Amino acid sequence: MSEPPSEESSSDAPRADDSADSGSGTAHALADVKQLGLFASLASLSYVFWVVGGMEMVERCAYYGVRAVAGLYAGAAQSKGGLGINEDALGDIFFVWALVQSLVPVFTGGLSDRFGYKETIFVSTIFKIGGYIMMAMWPTYWGFFAGAVVLATGTAIFKPGIQGTLVKASSRENSSMAWGVFYQTVNIGGWLGPLIAAFVRTRWGWNWVFYACSAIICINFILLLIYKEPGKQERLERARLEKPGDRRSLLSESLEELAKPHVWIYLAIFSGFWFMFNALFDVLPLHIRDWVNTQTIVQDLFGATGTQSGAAKFFLGMNKEGTAINPEGMLNLNAGLIMITCFLFAWMSGKVRATTSMVIGTLLATAAMFLSGFSTLGWLSLSAILVFSVGEMLSSPKFSEFIGNFAPSDKKAMYLGFSQIPLAIGWSLEGKLGPMIYGHYASKDSFSRDLLVEKGMPAAQTVVCESGQDAGCIKQGEAFDKLVEFTKETPEALTQAMYESHQVGTVWVIFGAVGIVSAIGIYMYGRWVITLAVNAKRNPAS
Question: Residues with Cβ < 8 Å from 58, sequence gap 6 or more?
């Protein structure tokens, strides 16, 4: 940033009090706060912090058990238990899913502040169970679509209560460590979920993945029995003192807070970050499925014949034969690395300004985008995921920490609901455009149909089967298998030939460009924040 942090500086996040506004009050709240040391900050984390960390871990385990494989399930041929839909249709699902999950908290985050965190967490769990069961019981496009909307609604209600609890259970002196460790516990769930999904789907089928996730989320009912809401007495006292006409509508109150420059500018900048960020989770599994040779990783680790070890297959997310790593297993390196190292990166990021950490993290994640489309080598793909994970640990937790710190004390959940706005913009756009971009530049199914025509198959026989049509066409997701059968060439040779003859990496250049623009925006915001803080120190009476 434009000036280095002092030795006692740990965060440039503003911390507003109840009287702070977009002018001098907020500016004075921008003072740096010294963070506790590594072990002192860990020891300072309270009982309720670990309870909500456990609830988030359980929720993420169930959530990523579905989300990490949603694109694979949607694109898998119906003959293989999938939905058999193309990238455009998948983009429609992801778009609505992201929009509902991200926008609902903007207007309902304040409900947790008013009516209680425990109550909203309970309601959200009911919604999430319903979403998973709908996906399992109605294995159709519209059944999955409806289940995704219900699941997204439950997730949207869940987040503000959990994150509001975290903010109230931590302080400015340990906030970097609190958010880092919280992110770490989240990724324990995010690591286990895809492994469970990979194990279940390869043995019992897709519908059991959804049933398993509905069972997992029920564990939160047990954790709710030992959960205690911090600041509950203050909330109840405020409600008791309020007169019938005093309470303003959540909508008007939310819009007033959003109008403050330091809020809406910050949220606008991060929209691009979330566009780039979510591409890894929505599009990379498709890229790995189609183009990355994970068999070489297995051969390097276990030999030419792979492994029959049940433990290795489970923890690496491998196929049933033990010869290749499934896409969700590859992507799970992200959660696994965060799960074991995030507290160290949280400690390191606490040594620099929050915006500095976010810029560095965004640039690393951007570098990973470019690496992802560079070749079909499995080890290179793993390296890209590794680089992305480090960037994520330096940036993503800081985003929530930053906005949680400058939120007024009685509006923590509301502001953390606001944090979903850039996620709504970035993720929903990526949810729709990401699969579309991939379908245009990198769809293996589409390329296979073109190559079948080139190799001599009549074009009329390479079209996608319409509903109810079985003869004289190829079903979605089955074109590459038909190409292998028609040409008698090996899958590896055909994959490499198509990769070299198409600009598959263009997808990742587009995502990387968005990341670069986002990093520039965060950097400029950081300079503005420093200017506000310096002016506040020079004019303390303003």
Answer: 189, 216, 217, 219, 220, 223
CB atoms within 10 A of CB 251: 11
* DSSP state at residue 318: B
DSSP 484-536: HHHH---HHHHHHHHHHHTTTTHHHHHHHHHHHHHHHHHHHHHHHHHHHHHHH
Higher per-residue confidence, 217 vs 241: 217
pLDDT at 148 exceeding the cut of 70: yes
Taking alpha carbons only, the member of 194, 161, 180, 202 closest to residue 63 is 194
pTM assigned to the model: 0.71
Backbone φ, ψ for residue 19 (5° rounding): -100, -5
- Residues ≥6 apart with Cβ < 8 Å to 186: 53, 56, 57, 60
- CB neighbour list of residue 418: distance below 8 Å, 6 or more residues apart: 106, 109, 254, 257, 258, 263, 267, 403
SS3 per-residue string spanning 248-292:
CCHHHHHHHHHCCHHHHHHHHHHHHHHHHHHHHHHCHHHHHHHHC
The H or E element containing residue 339 is helix 327-349
Structure tokens, 539: 């004019």
Instruction: Considering the domain delimited by 24-236+251-442+504-538, tell me its CATH architecture.
Output: Up-down Bundle (1.20)
3-state secondary structure of 321: coil
Confidence of residue 267 (pLDDT cuts 50, 70, 90): confident
Longest dimension (CA), the chain: 81
Paired residues of 325 in beta bridges:
318
**Model confidence pLDDT, tens digit, residues 320-356:** 899 999 998 898 888 888 888 877 887 787 777 878 8
Task: Compute the radius of gyration of the chain from its Cα atoms.
Answer: 24
Q: pLDDT tens digits, residue range 16-27? A: 333 334 444 444
Tokens of 209: 């993945």
Q: Among 162, 146, 204, 174, which Cα is nearest to 58's?
A: 162
What are the residue ranges spanned by the domains of the chain?
24-236+251-442+504-538, 445-501
How far is residue 420 CA from its own chain's centroid?
12
Confidence bin at 70 (pLDDT 50/70/90): confident
The pair phi, psi for residue 476, each rounded to 5°, is: -55, 130
Cα 483 from Cα 14, distance rounded (Å): 58
Q: For 227-252, how does the pLDDT look when each residue is reduced to its tens digit (9 = 90+)?
A: 887 766 665 666 555 655 555 565 67
Q: How far apart are the first and last CA of the chain?
A: 25
d(CA 90, CA 381): 23
